[in-house]
Amino acid sequence: MNKQILIPTDFSKNALNAMRYTVDLYSKLNCDFYFLNVLDFERYTTENLIIPESGSAAFELAKKDTEKKFQKLLNTLALHNDNPKHRYHTITTLDFLLEAMKKIIAEKDIDLVAMGTKGATGSKKVFFGSNTVNAMEKIRECPVLAIPDEISYTAPKEIVFPTDYKDTFKRKELRYLIEISKMYHSNIAVLHLNKKNELSHNQKENKQLLDTILEDTPHSFHNLTENNLAKGIQTFIESRNSNMMAFINRKHLFFGSVFSNPLVKEIGYDATVPILALH
Fold first, then answer.
1. C-alpha span between 273 and 160 (Å, rounded)
2. pTM of the predicted model, to two decimals?
3. 3-147 domain in CATH 3.10.580.10?
C-alpha cells in the first residue's frame, strides 16, 4: 500500500522547500502526496470577518488563483524530481487549517504530516510558525515532520533521539523513526538528557527496552550532562553532523507540552535539522 503523506502549503519558499525535502526523503517508497491549501480571501474581499460562500465571486477568484499556483507547483516538482513512485493530489478548502488537516488525516488514512517551520510571513524571531506548533501539539493520529527553512535535503545518516528514559517505550511509537532508519541505514543516536550520572532502576529497564526495540536498527547510546540542555543537543548534532532529530511527544515527558517548554523553544530558534514529532 502506498504511503499517504499530507503537506500543507501557502505557496511560500519555505513550504516548497518542505515539499522537496519530503519528496526526496521518501523517494524510495510508493507515495501519495496530498498538498493542502486553505483559501485566503484578503485579496478578494474587504469584508474580512465574513468568509465568502462557495460559488460567490470572491470564492471563485480565490479558487482560480489557487489552482494556478498548484499547477505551477506541480510543474516545479516535476522538474525537481519526476518520480514514477509518487502521485500528487491537490486539495483546496475553506476550513481552518488544523480542522482541514485532521479531516484529511481521517479520510485518507494519512501516515505522516510534513510542513515547513515558517509560513509566508516567517520571521527569524518567531519559533516555528503557529500552524506548525498547532500541528505538532494537536495532531496525535500520525507523526509530524517540521522542516526548517533553507535546509537542503541530505539523506539522514544519523537521527538524534533525546530521552530521559523516564517513560516506557512502545514499538508503535517508534515505528516511523525505525522506518526512516532502515531506509537509509541511519544510526539512531539515543541521547540521554540528565544532569545526574546514575540511572534509576526504572530508567535502566526503559533503556534496555529501547535497546531491544532498536535491535535490528543501527543505534548508539550517549550521555549529555550539560547544564544548558538545548545548547548541548545543538552542539551534539553539529559535532556529529547529524541530519535529523526525533522525539516522542508525550505531555508528561521532559519536553512537557511540546512547544511550551523553554528547552524545545530554544532548540527551535536555531533548528539546523528537521524535527520529527512521534506520537
1. 10
2. 0.86
3. no
